[in-house]
Amino acid sequence: MNKKTSILSFAALIAGILFYQAGPPRPSVSGLRDAVADSALDGLRSAGPQNKAGHAPIPLPVAQSVSQPGSGPVYKADPAFDAAVPADIKQQLLQDLGFAGTITSKKVSALHNSIFGLVSGQAYTKYFEDRVKSVGMSGCGSALAVACVIPFKSNTKMWLTQNYIKFSHPQIARIMLVFHESRHTEAKNGNWRHANCPDPFTDANGQDVHSIWTGASLVGESGACDITPYGSYGSSLIMLKNIQKFCANCTEKVQMDAGMYADDQLNRIVDAKAKKAIQADLYNK
Ligand SMILES: [Zn+2]
Predict the structure, then answer these.
(1) How close is the Cα of 184 to the center of ligand 1, in Å?
(2) For residue 39, which of 51, 62, 21 has the smallest C-alpha distance?
(3) 168: how many CB neighbours lie within 10 A of its CB?
(4) pLDDT for 61-72, tens place per residue?
(5) Looking at beta carbons, which pairs linking 218-222 to residues 24 or more positions away fall under 8 Å?
């Protein structure tokens, strides 16, 4: 394999890359729907077979108890970090995972329950730890990448780029990306490779769909959409939509942000049946 070929193979095999674009710092009052124009994106560059809609969900044990806000145990994922991971990036990821580990709720949607279990820090921590054993640093094949999973190197490792701490999105959006990438570790599900976005590709208002992360058009974008509720886009939006609707100990801002990013990423579910399943689970009641 010559050098060019190996670079192309590398790019084709990265299962999930999250991109960002530097922008002005978001106002701390965010939550406004139009405040996201500055942002980052997930655009998957993988090629190859796509998952069929309706893939069986991963059965996960449901947590037995739900702690009360402010009183229950706090769960914290603790992956191994390569020595190359700078302290500030490690600290940021641990803070993000730590926040996810504090979430409590007494309600959960059926799809969320089938993918993650309850809306709880315990379930999220287990989900992450079951999939991601170590964290390293990589360029992830693009100067705009934030994180990736590289199946030909490892299906239990998440790679971060320097962009992880330059990310101008709220913490809950960063958590969405971490759980998006975690889903890509599932080799038994073909790493949940993405589908191509359609062309034309318009939202409910008839406007071309753009990335909430970079602002780039997603019309006809390859590997930037999903055709199942269970892939990386579907599962992470189901997580955030549940946090918006059911988190018992989140601030209003966290819930508003969670809803905003979930609603946006629903545009990326381009199979009618898959979208309907998510809407029936979380939007039509
Ligand atoms: Zn992805």
Answers:
(1) 7
(2) 21
(3) 17
(4) 443 344 444 556
(5) 218/267, 218/268, 220/196, 221/43, 221/196, 221/197, 222/45, 222/47, 222/196, 222/197
What is the token pair recorded at 240? 């955030």
Interface ipTM > 0.85: yes
Burial of 37 (0-12, 13-18, 19+ CB in 10 A): exposed
Residue pLDDT, tens place only, 44-55:
333 233 333 334
**Ligand 1 centroid, distance to 37 Cα (angstroms):** 20
What CA–CA distance (Å, rounded) separates 223 from 141?
15
> Distance, CA 18 to ligand 1 centroid (Å)?
7
Distance, CA of 65 to CA of 49 (rounded, Å): 39
Q: Residue count of the chain, please give it.
A: 285
The pair of structure tokens assigned to 63 is 């947590």
CA distance readout (Å), 136 to 30, 83, 90, 93, 147: 31, 8, 10, 12, 10
